[in-house]
Amino acid sequence: MKYTPANIKMWARMGQRGAVFGVAMPDIAARKDQVKLLTADLALLSGMERYAKKYPDKFLNVGIAEQNMVGIAAGLAMDGYCVFASTYASFIAVRSLEQIRQNLSHMGCNVKIIGSSAGAAAAKSGISHWATEDLAFLRALPNMTVLSPADSLEAVKMAEWAADTEGPVYLRLSGGLGCPITYEADYDFVPGKLVPLREGSGPAVIATGLMVSEAMKAAVLLEKEGIPCAVYNMHTIKPVDKEGLREVFSRHRLIVTVEEHMVTGGMGSAVAEYKATLANTPRQVFLGFQDAFCEAGAQRYVWEQAGLTDIQLAARIAQEWRRDA
Question: Which residues form the catalytic set?
Answer without folding.
Answer: 66
